[in-house]
Design goal:
The structure is a single chain. The chain is of the alpha+beta class. The chain has 2 helices and 4 strands. A hairpin with a 2-residue loop joins strand 3 and strand 4. The two termini are 20 Å apart.
């Protein structure tokens, strides 16, 4: 699946709760239907992003892990 992001947030090197806080702030800047890409290295961010996506109603379009970097694509509801 190839997803094109409208905005990217680099949270590599940050640990909980920082990636979620940066994600929330970036989502506030997007319009409905736009896609946010989040890059993170904290393994806990996988569960955090899934939970945040469900709680806020912003769907997770894709998540990829490559070389210790987690890449999340979230669509603003």
């Amino acid at each position: 699946m190839s997803v094109t992001a409208d905005k990217t947030v680099d949270c590599k090197g940050l640990s909980c709760p920082e990636p979620i806080l940066h994600t929330k702030m970036a989502m506030n800047e997007l319009s409905s239907g736009q896609v946010l890409e989040v890059l993170a290295t904290d393994p806990g961010s996988v569960n955090d992003m899934d939970a945040w996506s469900k709680r806020t109603g912003n769907p997770m379009l894709d998540k990829i892990e490559k070389d210790g970097v987690f890449q999340f694509f979230l669509k603003k509801a």
